[in-house]
Amino acid sequence: MKRPPLPVVLVALLLLALGETAGAAMSQLRAPLERWSSARVDANRAVHGLSGSAEYDDEVRARTIFLVEAGLSFLHTHAEGLGLVLFFTSTLVASAVGGRRWRALLYPPLTVGALFPVGYLVYSVAVLELGRDAGVEFAERWVLTVLGGLAILGLLGLGAALAAGRGRA
Amino acid sequence: MTADDAWRLPPWWVLLVAVLLIVCAELGGASMVRFKLELARWARDAMLARPAVHGLVGVRDVDERILDEALVKFDAGLRLFHLHAEGMGLVIIATTSVAATLGGRRAGRALIALLTAGGAGYPLGYLLWSALIPYRGIEEGKAIAEWSVWIPFGGATIVALWWLAGLVTLRMLRR
Hints:
The complex is a heterodimer of chains A (169) and B (175). Chain A has helices at 6-28, 30-43, 45-48, 54-96, 100-113, 118-130, 132-166.
């Protein structure tokens, strides 16, 4: 099997390393992360609609921290998965897609699209800084949809290149 | 195709470990479904035989809640073993191929050893956790699995992955 270009390999490795590290951080740094998240909610009182009522504010903090942890959990699983997807699909491009131009067209969307999991890091931070709904919408609209769309485009392109008989397996 | 632009395969034993890990993951997933009742019954009986470990007080309402929570964690441990073993089998194949191709002779060997041991060992921590829950409780079982498996093996994988990423970056910069 042929090897894809080094920058593509590097992105795949960085995604796997990020996924592993995020998993470890979620487990080992849970308490500090919760404290930090709680402090960020307090620092952005207006966007989180804190009222001064302890019971209500605690509920808001708990729901926000749940979303932050969900974002980190999705980062862990998606980074591991897409690191592997990028490794194997780019190897497929290098090995089975004939024509330098086709390969040059396919590597960028596959590689940039594989950065999709970073959107979940943005999601976690945006939820804290912009509020739950606005943060989720920001991450989904500007990062997750764009990068996810690119990944889908790259995969469809790979499928098309193979189906068009340009593969040379 | 030149040797420089082809993937070099890692040693056969690395591939064997990765494939066996994936087989274990598949068997684990299948066993969870096939022996769900038997596993739950075994775990429950083992917990009832050790009331002090689980804080069982002899009051049905209280004890059932404690047993239910422990059984959920017991099941979660098996499920996480299944998921992580599947994933890490593939991670071993992908990353050791990169290490064999781009890691250089000495660093490549060390990286392959770390990635294989770390990747194969880490998921076993979830199996250990599940096995320990009935005997040592949720938290003590987790602490044992964490210090004996997750931290050393997971740490080995994390160190090796960042090291390998650094080597690939250096190689790119030298070109």
